[in-house]
Design a protein that fits this description.
This protein has helices at about 20-30, 85-100, 185-195, 220-235, 240-245, 250-260, 340-355; strands spanning about 10-15, 40-45, 110-115, 120-125, 130-140, 160-165, 175-180, 200-205, 210, 245-250, 265, 270, 275, 285, 290, 315, 320, 325-330. It contains seven helices and 18 strands. The strands form four sheets. Strands 1, 2, 3, 4, 5, 16, 17 and 18 form an eight-stranded mixed sheet that branches. A hairpin with a 2-residue loop joins strand 12 and strand 13. By secondary structure, it is an alpha/beta fold. The protein starts with 8 loop residues before the first strand and ends in an 11-residue tail after the last helix. Helix 1 runs parallel beside helix 7. It is globular, with a radius of gyration of 22 Å. Helix content is about 25%, strand content about 20%.
């Protein structure tokens, strides 16, 4: 704040919000173009330490159980112990990566809003002050916005309700009756772990789960990404890539199906003080309801820019927001996978390079 009481903003070319896979990939490519961290770009991350959302994963998710973790650009992840928690392995890897490429991530920094500023710049308001940037790479992911469905009677439940975001591992459910809600990878992993120690488990999903047999080859991957990409092109909220790929039919899942652990029930109609119930008269008693119901994009700080379409999402072409070409979303929609985040980071930086050198004529002109 200057002597007249007006808040001053620090000027920089690019602000990157988030230091998970997508944000670090973008920072790496910004560095390779010759931009200097803390001068030409800044990376702001609200997490307490390196690791992105991985640092918050439950201890029983060991690195050996992680599917499809792709290395960040320029540095492989080698020699990892499959028995160690993925939060430790990937957190340490991200830490080494930030140091190796001198990315100077600033944390913990909370970004509260992004607004239109003077001279065609974007004002990024944060807990450490305001930045005035010519372009923004939003890499905030989804972990901070767990999705909790609402059902009649939910407030009356006398047991415990928690979400995947707060899952502590299976030991916390020993001897209890547990309803797991959700048909994705997290829901099945939770269920198979909990079933080994719980008194009873019930698996509830809105739609019958789709199990995928055979290898997930490049053609299948491209087809899945195309389905997600089509949604964001139309301005609809993105679905996860996993939601259109189905669940891989591993040996562990085959065993869980054969033993009745993965015996799916349709979605209940209401929650009772003692459990859940269906309109056909069925009911089960439960001590815990675990909502493995996914996450939504953490983009509320972009609200002042009015980027959302009537469908509820931000319309994106490639990584660029259609309503504002200065804004790039990486790790959003089709780039939410680890390999997709890497590619999106590179694509966003290329597009921003054209904006900064003036060859992108779609960007707002400073006045």
């Amino acid at each position: 704040m200057n002597d007249s009481g007006v808040t001053t903003a620090r000027e920089t070319e690019v602000v990157v919000i988030g230091a998970g896979q997508a944000g670090l990939s973008a920072a790496y490519h910004l560095r390779r173009t010759g931009l200097e961290p803390d001068r030409d770009f800044v990376v702001l991350d609200h997490s307490p330490r390196p690791g992105g959302a991985w640092q918050f994963r439950w201890p029983s998710l060991t690195y050996g159980k992680v599917h499809g973790m792709h290395a960040l650009p320029g540095m492989e992840l080698t020699g990892a112990d499959d028995s160690r928690p993925s939060s430790e392995v990937i957190g340490a890897y991200f830490d080494r990566y930030e140091s190796a490429f001198d990315l100077r991530v600033r944390r913990p920094v909370d970004v509260t809003a992004v607004r239109e500023g003077p001279a065609g710049r974007l004002l990024v308001e944060s807990s450490e002050g305001t930045y005035a940037a010519r372009a923004l790479i939003n890499a905030t992911g989804t972990w901070d916005r767990p999705f909790w469905p609402r059902y009649p009677g939910q407030e009356s439940f006398r047991g415990r309700q928690l979400h995947t975001a707060g899952y502590p591992g299976p030991a916390a459910f020993a001897g209890q009756r547990v309803v797991v809600v959700g048909g994705g990878a997290s829901g099945t992993q939770h269920l198979m772990e909990i079933a080994e120690v719980a008194a009873e488990t019930y698996w509830v999903t809105r739609r019958p789960p789709v199990f995928r047999e055979g290898p997930f080859d490049a053609d299948r991957g491209r087809a899945a990404v195309a389905l997600v990409e089509e949604r964001v092109r139309r301005g609809l909220p993105p679905q996860s890539v996993v939601s259109v790929t189905g669940l891989p039919l591993t040996e562990a899942i085959r065993h869980a199906r054969d033993t009745g652990v993965l015996d799916r029930l349709p979605m209940f109609d209401r929650i009772t003080p003692d459990g859940v119930a269906w309109d056909d008269g069925r009911a089960v008693e439960a001590d815990v309801i675990l909502w493995a119901t996914g996450f939504r994009a953490a983009i509320d700080h972009l609200a002042p820019l009015k980027l959302r379409e009537p469908g509820g999402g931000i319309q994106v072409e490639g990584t660029r927001a259609v309503r504002d070409p200065r804004i790039h979303l990486v790790g959003y929609g089709p780039s939410a996978s680890t390999i997709g985040a890497n590619r999106a980071g590179r694509a966003a930086v290329r597009a921003i390079g054209r904006l900064l050198d003036g060859s992108d004529t779609t960007a707002p002109v400073a006045v």
